[in-house]
Structures are given as C-alpha cells and as structure tokens.
Amino acid sequence: AQTVTQSQPEMSVQEAETVTLSCTYDTSENNYYLFWYKQPPSRQMILVIRQEAYKQQNATENRFSVNFQKAAKSFSLKISDSQLGDTAMYFCAFMKHGGTYKYIFGTGTRLKVLA
Amino acid sequence: DAGVIQSPRHEVTEMGQEVTLRCKPISGHDYLFWYRQTMMRGLELLIYFNNNVPIDDSGMPEDRFSAKMPNASFSTLKIQPSEPRDSAVYFCASSPTGTRSEQYFGPGTRLTVT
Predict the structure, then answer these.
(1) How does the average pLDDT of chain A come out, rounded?
(2) Residues of B in Cβ contact (< 8 Å) with A107
C-alpha cells in the first residue's frame, strides 16, 4: 500500500523569502502522479502543481516548483518570493497511474507567511 | 466554467437527524469523489464514482452513510442517523478521465452534529 509522509506539521517564512516543504512517499509502482494542494483558511482545496513520475524534469508553476527525486521517493515543494496569500495548509498527494484515480494524501504542513 | 458546487456550505443538525449533502461536478468530468476532513484523521476518501457508478466505497465508515449519483451532474451523500462524531468538513471533487488526472474540489460542507 502506498503512503505519503509530510514530516513538517508547521512552518513559517518571512514575506519575499523562499521556503521548501517536504514530502516523501512509499510505493512499489513505477508510474504515478504526485500533487501539491493548497488549502487556505477559506478551506477550498486548490491544486498548486502536479508531476508525472515518468518525467525527469521538475514541474514549475510561476513561484512554485518541485524537486522530484524518484529514487529517493521525495517530492518537495519550493515557494519562492513568499506572499501573505500563500499562508495555508499544503497537502502532498500520490496517485497511481492507471486504474483507480484514488489519491493518497499526506497529513499536511501548515505554512504561515510573516509580514 | 463553474467549478464543483456543493450545498449547503454549513449544516448544523441534532444527533439522530438525517443529513443530505449535495454535489454538482464540473461538466464533462466522469469521476466524482467524496472526502471527509477532520483534525484527527485528515482527508479520507469515502467513496468514488465513475460514470455515475460507485467504484470503491471502502472508505464509507458505516451503514449510516450512503451515496448516490443518479446522473452525471448530481450526487448526494446521506448520513442517517447522524452522530456527533460525524462532524467534519465534507468535500466533493471531480476529475476527467485521461492523462490530466488532477481532482478539482468543491468548497466543502462543514457539518456540525450536536
């Protein structure tokens, strides 16, 4: 069975600084997808970024980028130029390719951006 | 495009009452998921549908919970009878088939059972 671990329950960062959130996962699958979702105080779950395991290139979306290390089963999220609006819970999620379309979520990291 | 729509946004009910949560997925999406989020257990998948057919309901906590999807644009999650431990935020999400496999979440329903 797959598991997703987010070892940092809470983090804080100064506005305009860079922060990295960690995520590790355990799977015997070779093809899968990884996601980062953001949940601000409004509680809406918002997709931040996705990565296909077969792609070696790390995904980027504006100020958000990932460091995907397949061999190490690591999938960290880097937020550059942090903004107050980045304050939220961040969830890492795993989905096996083909078949069930089920997500396995981590427990989340609460990020606070300080003015 | 409208996103996933859930109603009500907030529900407060007394123990023993029936509760019905509603979801309208994004048009054209053929997967629909129901999740429950609590502080203790995080995000749990309760059940999901493909083309209106329930595929996996192994996350449904007990027989008090039931879910239906009578057509491609509507799903319900029902709790009967409700209990205080059912208090949580319930999310509905939808996803299209294919390589773009991300799920799009609704705003959630915060359920409080007193």
Answers:
(1) 93
(2) 42
3-state secondary structure of A86: helix
**What is the average per-residue pLDDT within B84-103?**
87
The domain segmentation of chain A, as residue ranges, is 3-114
Question: At which residue do the structure tokens 């980027």 appear?
Answer: A60
The minimal CB distance from B105 to the residues A45, A101, A102 is found for A45
Encode chain B in three state secondary structure: CCCCEEECCEEEECCCCCEEEEEECCCCCCEEEEEEEECCCEEEEEEEEECCEEEECCCCCCCCEEEEEEECCEEEEEECCCCHHHCEEEEEEEECCCCCCCCEECCCEEEEEC
Over residues B25-76, the pLDDT tens digits come to: 999 999 999 999 998 888 999 999 999 999 999 999 889 999 999 999 999 9
Angle (CA) B82-B26-A45 rounded to 5° is: 65
Test mutation, A48, A49, A102, chain B, max B CBs within 10 A:
A102
Domain A3-114 classification at class level: mainly beta
Q: Do B42 and A108 touch (CB under 8 A)?
A: yes
pLDDT at A2: 82
Neighbouring C-alpha atoms within 13 Å toward the C-beta of A93: 28
